[in-house]
Amino acid sequence: MNIAVYCGSNPGLDPDFATLADRLGTWIGQSGNNLVYGGSSVGLMGIVSRAVLQAGGYVYGVEPQFFIDAGVAQHDLTALYTVDTMAERKQLMINLADQFVALPGGVGTLEEMAEIMSRIRLNLGPSVRCYFLNIHGFWEPLRQLLEAMVEQHFIDQCDVDRYVFCDTLEDLMNCLDEAKDEVLDPHACVPEQVG
């Protein structure tokens, strides 16, 4: 299974972010799964990719040329795909991956996961759901925003139920293990008809 991991190009202030990025990467490599990520050597991105490689896993990076020119590309990847734009990077990562995970990150991580959430809501695949590693409640404001969207009838609860917030790495790994056998059901979430 190819697991796309979106996360910060900085490590963040909380040392647990780096620790859990390393542990997630080790699990991906040791469990026979593969990593799809943004191709950088810095921040949480670099930590998770190096951990997968050190655990014997395959890592597929997707990096815009301007980041490679800036010297932040990770070396020794299984494959590094070079693209021209951030939009191309996002689309290729979606094409390569089966499951989608967010660690803590900035606006890039949020933007990439918003695309995945939209695709899940529209049943466009490839994944049935996406996962947020909610370390120390990092993604809690997003969960509250989604709840407000449900309250105001902008989205349905059945949509939000497919955006899974895992408070521990163990919960995330269990969810990903279970996701291997999931099949996309276009009728899994039928929005309520309003008006």
Overview of the structural elements:
The protein is of the alpha/beta class and 195 residues long. It is 44% helix and 17% strand. The protein has a seven-stranded parallel sheet with strand order 4-3-2-1-5-6-7, sandwiched between helices.
What labels would you give this structure?
195 residues, alpha/beta, seven-stranded parallel beta sheet, globular
Q: What is this structure, in a nutshell?
A:
Helix content is 44%, strand content 17%.
Describe the secondary structure blueprint for this structure.
Layout: E1 2-6, H1 15-30, E2 34-37, H2 43-54, E3 58-64, H3 65-69, E4 79-83, H4 86-96, E5 99-102, H5 107-121, E6 130-133, H6 140-151, H7 157-160, E7 163-166, H8 169-179
Helix pairs in contact: 1-2
How many distinct helices? Answer: 8
What is the alpha-carbon Rg in Å?
Answer: 16 Å
Instruction: Count the E strands.
Output: 7
Give the averaged pLDDT, no decimals: 91
Choose one word for the global shape: globular
Q: Calculate the terminal CA-CA distance, rounded to whole Å.
A: 42 Å
Helix content: 40-55%
**Major sheet, described briefly?**
7 strands, parallel
Q: Determine the oligomeric state from the structure.
A: single chain
- SSE arrangement, N to C: EHEHEHEHEHEHHEH
Q: Order the strands across the largest sheet as they lie in space.
A: 4-3-2-1-5-6-7
Q: pLDDT below 50 for ≥5 consecutive residues: which ranges? A: none
Which structural class should the secondary elements be placed in?
alpha/beta
